[in-house]
Amino acid sequence: MLIPKPTLAIIDDHPIVIEGLTKLLMKKEKFNLIGSFTNGQDFISFLKTTPINIVLLDIVLPGIDGMDLCKEIKNISPTTIVLAFSNHQERSGIMKMLENGASGYVLKDASIDELMFCIDEAMNGRITFSKAINDILIQAQLKENRVAKLTQRETEILKLIANGTTTPHIAELLFLSKFTVENHRKNILQKLKAKNVAELISIANQQGLL
């Protein structure tokens, strides 16, 4: 029995980008490309009736922008993976996309192999960036000179969080109470000045903690 290919949609207000990306993805024969959209409203209507596994989402769109659209997509379909695919390189925009539920951020000048790698990473539950975006985040982090000092236990818990381990499972693995794990989790977020797990993993990667 054949395993169905993951479904993928593209949202970009430039038809030439959609056309080029569609051709490249179809050559890989890894996804079922079920739709391309030039605005968020049309995509939301489509999503409400059609399950989609992966969305490649531009940031600048007519009407609702990509950041707000990302949040709405995740509200409607929490399991849909959203990858930002944009020319915009501002750190604030990158972090806003992650905060709104995106699984990663890829610049449009990335190679098709780099894009495919990021899609695979996101499908495996990891936060992912193209190399150029990762470099931007690292440089921004260095400028802020934020190097968190974690205890050995906090580092251990951080790595488990990054692997997607739940609080109850962490407590079981480390023979700790759930309350203790939650306290460590709060301390780690505070030390790394992260608002959520996605941002925590990004900052931890930038600081070489993972």
Automatic annotation (TrEMBL):
CDD domains recorded: LuxR_C_like, REC_NarL-like
Keywords, comma-separated and alphabetical: DNA-binding, Phosphoprotein, Transcription, Transcription regulation
Domain Response regulatory, residue spans: 7-123
Domain HTH luxR-type: 143-208
Domain of life, per lineage: Bacteria
One record GO biological process: regulation of DNA-templated transcription
Protein's name according to its UniProt entry: DNA-binding response regulator
Organism (species): Pedobacter ginsengisoli
